[in-house]
Amino acid sequence: MKTLVLFLALLVLAITPVKAKELQTLFSIATFYNEQQGPYLETYLKVVGPTAVYPMTPGGSYQASLRVTLIIKRTDEIVAFQKYDLLSAELKDTLTGWPDFIDQQRISLPCGRYKVELSVADNNARDSKTGKNVGVVLEYNEKDLKFSDLQLVESFTATAQENVLSKSGFDLVPYVGNFFPPSVDVMNGYVELYNLDKKIGENQDFLFKYYIESVKDLIVMENFIKVRRHKSAAINPLLFTISITGLPNGLYNLVVESIDRNNQVLAKQKIGFQRSNPGLQLDESGIKAIDITSTFVEKITTLDSLKFYLLSLNPIATMTENLYIDKILKTTDIRHMQKTLYAFWKARNNQYPDAEWNHYKQQVMAIEDRYKTFTRHGFETDMGYTWLRYGTPDEVEDSKHEPLAAPYIIWKYHHIENQGNVHFVFSNPHLVGTEYFLIYSDARDNPYNRSWSRDLYERTSGFGAKGGWGSRIKSNFER
DSSP string spanning 239-279? Predict the structure, then answer.
């Protein structure tokens, strides 16, 4: 009898959905045109593998299952609807980790403005879901010169049999998201140029020029420019690869231009991305050998200013860089501090370190004005640190007068590094002063506090979970 009871208990555990970590996905779209089917939309969904639940299958392997709902609206009318289960690869065991997995859909649509609504839920976990809303415009015809959207590509192979990944003789696995970590050393891109034959004539020489430029000042990065010669046609595809090994930290645009034989730019397309490639060399003798003559750091001559500026690098510096900065801040060597500050920015933009510094300095001073307290600089507060590290939040929910809850603010980022739909929740639990403290974030490198919503209410009312997640915080968090 005990054996039967134990078996039934294990069976219940096996079939009962479990509470999972927050499901994390990345989502992007691109539009194209085909002479036969007309305009079409492609959706690219990437699921961060470790955030899904992998139950054991009847065959003894492990597999995640997600319910994907995709709705496309024109004004308030639903013009396309898909609901399907997305399965991960079957894993023999979970010791080697949970790889990310990707889904792509292709949907034909007439030209117009649309809203794309995505919802993804884990079939094996309670309340583990995520969503995304994106606006899109399709404007293609048979005569106007126009680029398709630029698609980032993770990998490509020659097409053996036509499928949803196939374009221009290649199967293109999408690179979902716009963050390129140090482990990625190349960018692949795909784009199509339409109706060039009507602009310059059929079978005429032209150039595709593709390059990387900085977002802030649109400066072209000289070591990241490529040119390819083509013959004009109705549809002109370009699949290309560009090395980003030496591309410093920063925000950039990947740009593609079509150029005629008179060196005139006929059309241009671009897509933004973020590069993480920290490069400060921590060789003390190398830093001390740097020539800072006539550079911006020569004008920073006081010890207090140098310490302030070096400390302000903390949100964007690597752990190794911060350890090195902490070391030199214990000295009074002004020259060494100047060279370290210069080396930091030269590693991130070898051509224009002063421009990178000035841009960041403006942000630091703005954060100082907004978040400085009696005891801490703006960049040392939780909100100031987060803003400098991740940039301006895409959505802000500010709740100061909700009954029974401490004042709180929710920041939502659509994309952070290689994550989507990331939240930061800040609270003023003591109800005094202006400083808000981070109590929850689902960013990967931040602590995960499952009881954050209960704590938000307990600190002021003692109602705990009863007055917490069931109150306005849930709707504010999910909107």
Answer: EEEEE-TTPPSEEEEEEEEEE-TTS-EEEEEEEEEEE----
Say yes or no to pLDDT of 58 above 50: yes
CA distance linking residue 266 with residue 226, whole number of Å? 17
- Which helix (H) or strand (E) segment holds residue 72: the answer is strand 65-74
Distance (Å, whole) CA 214 – CA 229? 25
Query: In this prediction, what percent of the chain has a pLDDT beyond 70?
Result: 85
What is the topology classification, in CATH, of domain 19-139?
A: Immunoglobulin-like (2.60.40)
CA dihedral 398, 402, 406, 408 (to 10 degrees): -10
Report the candidate in 445, 404, 388 with the shortest Cα–Cα distance to residue 422: 445
Sequence ranges of the chain with CATH classification 2.60.40.150: 19-139
* Burial (CB count within 10 angstroms: exposed 0-12, middle 13-18, buried 19+), residue 427: buried
Beta bridge partners, 415, equal 420
Mean pLDDT of 394-423: 82
Q: What residues does 25 pair with on adjacent strands?
A: 47
- Gap between the Cα atoms of 121 and 65, Å rounded: 9
- pLDDT on residue 8: 36
| pTM (two decimals) | 0.62
Classified by CATH at the fold level, domain 141-277 comes out as Immunoglobulin-like (2.60.40)
